[in-house]
Specification:
155 residues; mainly alpha; two-stranded antiparallel ribbon
Length: 155
């Protein structure tokens, strides 16, 4: 298998959700080498291909998010115990004890999906701020003027 074919296969497996470590095992290479190949593949992707992939991933993640939220809307199941499956009740109130673990897992998954959406959209990247000395000085003067007006000194 040529390196080009292998790299495209690595890229395809990565896009399908396979972890770098697992990909490395499939191809008998290190995880770091897989990471390097993925970086090269990202750099070689055309803007149109990247936009198509992002759009497809966003649509898929939106579908998953809808499914997860449907799980969230489901009522929590009653907790059962014993061989006969008796419903467990709160000893103080007599209310049926409910298992919310499925709903909590749905929330956790929804958060992970949103993090993935943010990453795809580039919303998780640090913002670079460039504040010049003039802009900072102007902001300081405006803040001082506002403080004077609030204190009644600027009248």
């Amino acid at each position: 298998m040529s390196d080009n074919v292998r790299n495209h296969e690595i890229w395809r497996k990565y896009l399908s959700g396979m972890r770098q470590r697992d990909i490395a095992e499939c191809f008998g290479i290190s995880q770091q080498h897989v990471s390097t190949i993925l970086i090269e593949m990202r750099k070689s992707a055309t803007p149109v291909a990247v936009a198509d992939t992002v759009a497809r991933d966003l649509a898929f993640l939106d579908t998953l998010r809808s499914e997860v939220m449907a799980l969230w809307d489901m009522p929590a199941a009653p907790v059962t115990a014993g061989k006969d499956g008796r419903v467990v009740r709160d000893p103080e109130t007599g209310a049926v004890v409910r298992d919310h673990s499925g709903r909590l897992a749905a929330v956790d998954r929804a958060i992970k999906l949103q993090e993935r959406v943010s990453k795809l959209m580039g919303l998780d990247a640090a913002l670079r701020l460039d504040v010049s000395v003039e802009a900072q000085a102007e902001a300081t003067r405006a803040a001082e003027a506002a403080a004077e007006r609030l204190s009644g000194q600027g009248e």
